[in-house]
Amino acid sequence: MTHSRPRISKAVIPAAGLGTRFLPATKATPKEMLPVVDKPAIQYVVEEAVSAGLSDVLMITGRNKRPLEDHFDRNYELEEALTRKGDASRLARVRESSDLATMHYVRQGDPKGLGHAVLCAEPHVSDQPFAVLLGDDLIDPRDPLLSRMIEIQERHGGSVVALMKVEPEQIHLYGSAAIVPTGDDDVVQVTDLVEKPEASQAPSTYAIIGRYVLDPSVFEVLKKTGPGRGGEIQLTDALRELAQHTEIGGPVHGVVFTGRRYDTGDRGDYLRAIVRLACEREDLGPDFRTWLRSYVNEELPE
Ligand code: G1P
């Protein structure tokens, strides 16, 4: 184990996407601000980074993303109004997001893909390994994934991606990894990666889910990575280069995740995430579950 390296402390969250799948809701509101029960999706992601010990968060934003910055900033008018009313619990809710982490923002300008978004983090991240969290994937806080990835990165060096087994007909939605086992059940070495392959071309049904711990050498590789799938600069293509040439920036490992993950980038999955999380909430859950049961039993159309 190498303990001489400084602990990973920076998280990068790409949030420049247009969110067209949620139009018209996302016409004037960033998709990251859509509520999952009563918190914007992006706050869950920042909370996840903070629970893994990463309290320096860089968001890669774009035009029309100002509400993200406002959400993680103080709102003095609201705070004062709630203080005047003596509403301590709502005041705490308002302050939660501004007290969470040290937030930084950089604009992507031209949205040229996820790889390009990550490259925008270079001046902030510099030469330390760092984490990348994609906002469309919510990982249940009861199933800590990022801490395990950081542990594996600290043990092996290089980069680490999060993998999840998916059905063959789903693999075209993800980056797919060729893998070999290691001594740890939940850890594999990644030998190849293909971005969103047809099922017949996929090296496996291990899909990259939106968590990465990256060696800073990824920046140099990204600078040389041309447009890939969809004409965009793909992070998967840069990681493929790293996986195939471990002399550049160390090996690429995968942590195989078997916990609870909610995809909020798709409308159906977004609705399922809300129902599930609402059912499990201590405050809202009891009433909501009673209603849901009677709705399912008595009113649900076929
Ligand atoms: C991105 C990555 C893909 C990964 C996915 C996980 O794709 O390019 O490799 O599997 O995130 O959610 P996107 O879903 O942003 O198109």
TrEMBL record:
<dbReference type="InterPro" id="IPR005771">
    <property type="entry name" value="GalU_uridylyltTrfase_bac/arc"/>
</dbReference>
<dbReference type="GO" id="GO:0003983">
    <property type="term" value="F:UTP:glucose-1-phosphate uridylyltransferase activity"/>
</dbReference>
<protein>
    <recommendedName>
        <fullName>UTP--glucose-1-phosphate uridylyltransferase</fullName>
        <ecNumber>2.7.7.9</ecNumber>
    </recommendedName>
</protein>
<dbReference type="InterPro" id="IPR005835">
    <property type="entry name" value="NTP_transferase_dom"/>
</dbReference>
<dbReference type="InterPro" id="IPR029044">
    <property type="entry name" value="Nucleotide-diphossugar_trans"/>
</dbReference>
<comment type="similarity">
    <text>Belongs to the UDPGP type 2 family.</text>
</comment>
<keyword id="KW-0548">Nucleotidyltransferase</keyword>
<dbReference type="Pfam" id="PF00483">
    <property type="entry name" value="NTP_transferase"/>
</dbReference>
<feature type="domain" description="Nucleotidyl transferase">
    <location>
        <begin position="10"/>
        <end position="274"/>
    </location>
</feature>
<keyword id="KW-0808">Transferase</keyword>
<dbReference type="GO" id="GO:0006011">
    <property type="term" value="P:UDP-alpha-D-glucose metabolic process"/>
</dbReference>
